[in-house]
Amino acid sequence: MKLILFLTLLLFVSCGKDDIESSKNDNNQDNTETPKEWGDERSYVFDLNSLPEVYMTISLDEWNRMLAEYDKDNNTKEYFHCDVDMKLKGENYTVADAGVRLKGNTSRRRPENGNGKHVKDNADWQHCHFQFNFRKYNKDEEHTIRGVRKMYLKWFKDDAAYCREIYCYDLFRRFGVWTAIENCYCRLWVHVEGDKEPAYYGIYEMNETIDDTYLKMRKDKFGSHKGNLWKCNYGASLNYDRDKNASIGESDGSYDPIYEIEELGDDDLIAAKNQLLHFMKQLRDLKGQQLHDWLEKAIDIELLMRTYAVNVAVGMWDDYWNNTNNFYIYFNSTDTQNYKFYLIPYDYDNTLGTSHNCGVQSDSGRHDPLNWGNSDTSPLLAKILQFDDFKKIYIDALNELCSSSGEFYYTTSIARIKGWHAMIEKYVDNDTGEDTKIKDRPAGWGNHSEYRLWESTDANTNWFRVRAASMPKK
After folding, report:
1. Which of 118-127, 136-145, 204-213, 400-409 is the least confident region?
2. Does 138 lie in the same domain as 189?
3. Domain carrying residue 239
4. What are phi and psi of 8, to 5 degrees?
């Protein structure tokens, strides 16, 4: 009898402790009605220590319409109606009648393999990228998840290690690069209405989008969220002689210009274009101390040098400097001559040993950080690094990252990656039949298959050690 009473008491105490912890967690969350305006909840939603569950429900008609639009134009930007449910830290969130679209450049795919319409209960599912716009059809705060209006869900294309872009954005944030987006892992299900069961798409990457909300949530750091935001597509070199006649403007849905305006500060596209060209022209025309002083005024040099230190440390070869690709720029003013320029890092899945013959590079692990790209084509970094005080910031940042106490150090990096894998590994297997295991391999199309992140700590094959050895000395 005493044993029974003891076990009952133990169960009561245990349950009571859980209830207390649950109550603490509840008190740390806003359980009141959804406010008219959320504050900055990004770090809550995109929390790398949690694993949100995302369920997309879409009607058969909308799913078939998505498939048909893809078949007609595989670069379609069309949105489709869906409902989104998310389980986040024990809380359930529902957004009815949200918008979803397919995303990706060379990685864009048909979400269901085959031709024609959906195959009920026997679909050949395929990994693809999705973007949710919760307020696409309903412009109210009920159509957000804790104030987050959009999110980009990416599959781990060519990344059997399930960590490359996660690692890179996390490293940016740890290193004080506040322009880097928030992101985390999630699990994704897609339910086409009429099917018996939803399709489990597996582990995805859940990314903050770079848009007006991104700017608003950083307005105190930018100084203003009402400037001009550009998405820079392949060919964006910031080289005035090369790009003065390049396509600069808005996407028409079927064609994306090299410099694509995403947010227009004062609805004056001509002024925004002139501002962009002014920056390029100053970069070309100014020399010596004049150039130094203008760079110091027009750019947050320390932020840019720390941004590029991370960019080069992780081996991002498909970037601005080497391949005129994959970045955003933001001018925090609409004034065509007075502004602060920010380079925003973007798209970091082809990193950490996924190397390629591109630009001036053939081995991103051993390539010189001081000559990362062709500076005649892409002049910005070379223009900055010609000045000793700016160059020192860059070299110091590289060495800070790679030091034994730095965030890029190989034992520290391996521990972080293994911690994430412990959280996701039992959920990787999925209904697409693709990417069902975590493997320490770079992309198969890369040119350096020997690189490893955690399986080897050898100085010649461990990515973090190889990269650290290439850094310039102070």
Report:
1. 136-145
2. yes
3. 214-402
4. -65, -45
pLDDT for position 37: 56
Give Cα 316 to chain centroid, integer Å: 13
pLDDT of residue 323: 98
Pairing type for strands 129-133 and 150-154 reads: antiparallel
Residue 297 counted as domain residue: yes
Asked which of 381, 402, 423 is the last residue of a domain, the reply is 402
pLDDT in tens, 23-51: 323 333 333 343 445 668 999 999 999 99
How far are the Cα atoms of 29, 105, 127 from residue 102, in angstroms, in the given order?
32, 10, 11
- For residue 150, is pLDDT > 80? yes
End-to-end CA distance of the chain: 73
Q: Cα–Cα distance between 306 and 177 in angstroms, integer?
A: 7
- The CA-based dihedral angle spanning residues 22, 27, 30, 31, taken in that order and rounded to the nearest 10 degrees: 60
Average pLDDT of 119-135? 98
55 with 199, same domain: the answer is: yes
- From CA 102, how far away is CA 108, in angstroms rounded? 7
Q: Are 237 and 280 in contact (CB under 8 A)?
A: no
Q: Does one domain contain both 273 and 344?
A: yes
- pLDDT tens digit sequence for 289-319: 999 999 999 999 999 999 999 999 999 999 9
Contacts of residue 340, Cβ cutoff 8 Å, sequence gap at least 6: 222, 223, 298, 299, 300, 331, 332, 333
What is the number of structural domains in the chain?
Answer: 3
- Domain co-membership, 434 together with 384: no
φ and ψ at 213, to 5 degrees? -70, -40
Please give the Cα distance from 58 to 62 (Å, whole number). 6
